[in-house]
Amino acid sequence: MRILLVDDDEATRHSLAEYLTLLGHAVTSCSDAESALDVCRNHRFEMVLSDIQMPGKTGIELVREVKSMSGSYFPDVVLYTGHSDLELAIGALRAGAYDYMTKPINMEELRSILNRVAEHQALLAENDRLTKKFDEVVAEATNDFRAELTRLQELLEKQAGLDNIGIFSEPMWQVVSQAKRYHEDRELPVLIQGETGVGKDIVAKIIHYGPDQSSLPFVAINCAALPATLFESELFGYKAGAFTGSAARGAKGKIDLAKGGTLFLDEIGEIPVELQAKLLRVIEDKSFYRVGGLEKVHADIRIIAATNLDLDERMEQGLFRKDLYYRLRVGSIMVPSLRERPDDIVPLAKLFLTNFAKKRGKNFTDISPNAAQLLMVHPWPGNVRELKNTLEWVSVMHDAPELLPEHLATILTDNRGYAVVASSQAAVIPSSKSKKRRKKPTEKEIDDALAATSGNKTQAALLLGISIRMLYYRISNRKDDNINDK
Fold first, then answer.
1. C-alpha span between 299 and 285 (Å, rounded)
2. Contact (CB, 8 A) for 340 and 348
């Protein structure tokens, strides 16, 4: 990243610049806020790292003026200050700073903030790219979705901090609308439920960032990835000497890092039972104790949790507290599986395919009707994540102007255990246009569809564009004709 470093103390400025340069960042140094603003007006930076207390303008004034600059980009401003200025630093966050640190600066904490700023700036740039190219997307969309795509444009123009998203079905529009309403109340805990791979983390980001492009911290923790022995210190932090091997000065937890913003607890169903009461206290009292500490710490955070587990079943097994469950689900969102929103499948596939093709210099720009049929028939047990991984594999292994059935055959058969139509059979699958021209398929088309789906009549009916009842009727009549011929 390009970083503007501002500090009136030459020794501190030199050591920080040297450290940031070793990490691979391009650093420009200034000794005061006035000169920093002059540089910032003429050069582009992804991040401004500044001390608060300086002669002349303070770091807080620097934040306000950077945020008021006109232009298509906004660097994230991170401030640092002494322990005695902690309240001042919190005020800086409210003025628009991305984050803050206390002196002496913890280099591991700085690296963590650098990673989050880099991710945030990448998402802002991608959002800007999508916004500028949105007219092209609208031109390719069907008339049925023009109104929804306009709403998506408005969302993407305001939603800073989100990756490429595609919302093409009414169920997902309802989820996004609900998430935007939850964004308005930071006191409201939200529980997001849905199968693995449906995009629960994206919904959490929509709740956090909202239409005002919040620059406050979004800190995620995977409850399933941490052993119970480390979970408490990771979440709450710990005091110096709290346990054997602990850092001499103690350490902040994820709640501290998320102060003023959002703590996203992914896979909340996996949180150790013995810690659930402590998490409940954080939600209800907005306070917690660090491991080994006696001082109550205020928790100024929004809590968003997500799970793909059946929490009712976990509660019956005694693995999840009922009081925590009912407190979390004050705000509740159920994200539907991909098979429950089929209108998303082909547009998402095209979005993923073109993005991966551009990344790897491939020629994919479209999806053939027969390949689209195969995508629609596949059950996608891994949901959007599986769809995305499939299209990434295709972009690695193949190259063509459009996606064809043979590009999908190997991965869907070998990796999923699901039979798809080979290229020689694909020609007999009717496209959406052919279904409108013909009322019923031929006998050969019925045989090919049944062979392509390994005898699955429901999937064969989908391929043929007829109802399952009509398919059974055609098969039954054919059997009767054979009997009469004999």
1. 9
2. no
CB atoms within 10 A of CB 472: 12
Domains of the chain: 2-128 (3.40.50.2300), 159-336 (3.40.50.300)
The set of residues, in sequence order, having a beta carbon less than 8 Å from that of 455 and lying 6+ positions away, is none
* pTM assigned to the model: 0.53
The encoded tokens of residue 311 equal 């929490």
CA distance linking residue 53 with residue 40, whole number of Å? 19
SS3 (DSSP) at 126: helix
Cα–Cα separations (whole angstroms), residue 435 to 369, 374, 464: 12, 16, 8
- Pairing type for strands 366-367 and 296-298 reads unpaired
Over residues 157-167, mean pLDDT: 54
Between CA 298 and CA 236 the distance in angstroms is: 11
CB 62 within 8 A of CB 77: yes
Strands of 331-334's sheet in order across: 218-222, 262-266, 302-307, 190-193, 331-334
Return the percentage of the chain with pLDDT > 90, whole number: 39
Return the number of other C-beta atoms located less than 10 Å from residue 282's C-beta.
Answer: 19
Residues 6 or more apart in contact with residue 101 via CB below 8 angstroms: 78, 79, 80, 81, 109, 110, 113
The predicted pLDDT at position 241 comes to 58
The share of the chain scoring above pLDDT 70, in percent, equals 80
| Average pLDDT of span 338-358 | 93
Locate all alpha helices (DSSP H) within 381-467, ordered by sequence. Answer: 383-397, 405-410, 423-426, 432-437, 443-452, 457-464
The β-bridge relationship of strands 76-81 and 47-51 is parallel
Mean pLDDT of the chain: 81
Q: Work out the burial of residue 420: count CB atoms within 10 Å of its CB; fewer than 13 is exposed, 13-18 middle, 19 or more buried.
A: buried
